Inverse folding.
C-alpha cells in the first residue's frame, strides 16, 4: 500500500511552475544588471536586485521537488536506473546545449569559425567552462549520482532520526555557519565533508513532503513577512546578501513549499479572500 504522503503530489506541479517562472525571471533580471549596470540609476539597481533576491527561491524549490519525488520510498531507483534514466538524460542535455554555447563563445572571441571549435567546445563543456546558467545541470548530475546512497539513509534509517540529524548538520554547515562568517567574520573551523546547500535542499524536500504538516495559513503568512523583509532590505540598504545558502532564502523556500504542500490536503475551506491572497503570492513569485 502506498504512503498517503506520496499520493498527494499535485501541489508539486504548482511549485514547479512557480520555480520555472522564478528562474526565468532571475536570468532575465541578472542579464540586465550584469550587462549594463553603469546605465542604471541607483533606484533601478535596487529594484532589479530586489527582484533577483525574491526570485532566488526558484532553484531551492526545484531541488526540493526533485528530492520529494526521487527519494519516494515507493520509487525503486537503483544504480542502473539512476545512470541510464536520470544521469544520462541530464548529460545529454548538458552536452547538447553546452557544446554549441561554448563554441559560440569561441566564435565571438576569435571572430571566425572552424570545426575544431566544436571539439574545443566539447572539452570546455566537460570541464564546466560553458555558459554560467548551465551550472545547475552539473549540480544535478552530482546529486543524481548520490541518490541511491541517499535513499538508503532516508528510507531505511528513519526510526533512528538519521534524516533529521543529517538535515540539522546540513543547515548548520551549509547555511548557518557561512552566514555567521559573512555577517560577523567568525569562521567555524570544523570541516563537514557532506556540506553543500543543494544536497540539503534535495533531502529537505523529501522530508517536508513526508512530514511537513502545518497550517498553510501560518506558512503563507510567514512567506509574506519574509518577502517584505527582502523588499525592505533593498529599500533601506541593509546590505543583507540573498543567495541560495542564505538563511532567508531557505526560510522563503520552506514557507513556499509548505504553503502549497498543506493546501493540497483539501480541508482548508478557502474563502474568496484567501484565494486572492494565494493568487497574489503566486503572482509575486512568477512576475
Amino acid at each position: 500500500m502506498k504512503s498517503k504522503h506520496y499520493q498527494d503530489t499535485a501541489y508539486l506541479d504548482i511549485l514547479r511552475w512557480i520555480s520555472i517562472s522564478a528562474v526565468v525571471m532571475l536570468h532575465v533580471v541578472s542579464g540586465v544588471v550584469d550587462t549594463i549596470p553603469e546605465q542604471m540609476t541607483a533606484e533601478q539597481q535596487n529594484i532589479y536586485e530586489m527582484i533577483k533576491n525574491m526570485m532566488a527561491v526558484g532553484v531551492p524549490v526545484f531541488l526540493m521537488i526533485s528530492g520529494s519525488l526521487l527519494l519516494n520510498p515507493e520509487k525503486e531507483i537503483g544504480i542502473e536506473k539512476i545512470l541510464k534514466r536520470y544521469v544520462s538524460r541530464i548529460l545529454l542535455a548538458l552536452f547538447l546545449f553546452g557544446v554549441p554555447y561554448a563554441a559560440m563563445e569561441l566564435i565571438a572571441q576569435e571572430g571566425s569559425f572552424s570545426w575544431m571549435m566544436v571539439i574545443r567546445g566539447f572539452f570546455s563543456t566537460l570541464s564546466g567552462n560553458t555558459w554560467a546558467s548551465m551550472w545547475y545541470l552539473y549540480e544535478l548530475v552530482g546529486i543524481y549520482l548520490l541518490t541511491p546512497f541517499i535513499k538508503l539513509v532516508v528510507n531505511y534509517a528513519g526510526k533512528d532520526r538519521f534524516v533529521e540529524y543529517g538535515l540539522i548538520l546540513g543547515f548548520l554547515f551549509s547555511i548557518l555557519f557561512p552566514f555567521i562568517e559573512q555577517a560577523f567574520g567568525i569562521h567555524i573551523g570544523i570541516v563537514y565533508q557532506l556540506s553543500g546547500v543543494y544536497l540539503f535542499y534535495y533531502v529537505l524536500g523529501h522530508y517536508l513532503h513526508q512530514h511537513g504538516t502545518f497550517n498553510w495559513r501560518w506558512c503563507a503568512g510567514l512567506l509574506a513577512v519574509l518577502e517584505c523583509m527582502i523588499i525592505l532590505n533593498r529599500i533601506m540598504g541593509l546590505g543583507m546578501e540573498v543567495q541560495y545558502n542564505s538563511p532567508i532564502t531557505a526560510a522563503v523556500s520552506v514557507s513556499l513549499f509548505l504553503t502549497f504542500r498543506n493546501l493540497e490536503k483539501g480541508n482548508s475551506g478557502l474563502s474568496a479572500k484567501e484565494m486572492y491572497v494565494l493568487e497574489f503570492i503566486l503572482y509575486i513569485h512568477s512576475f
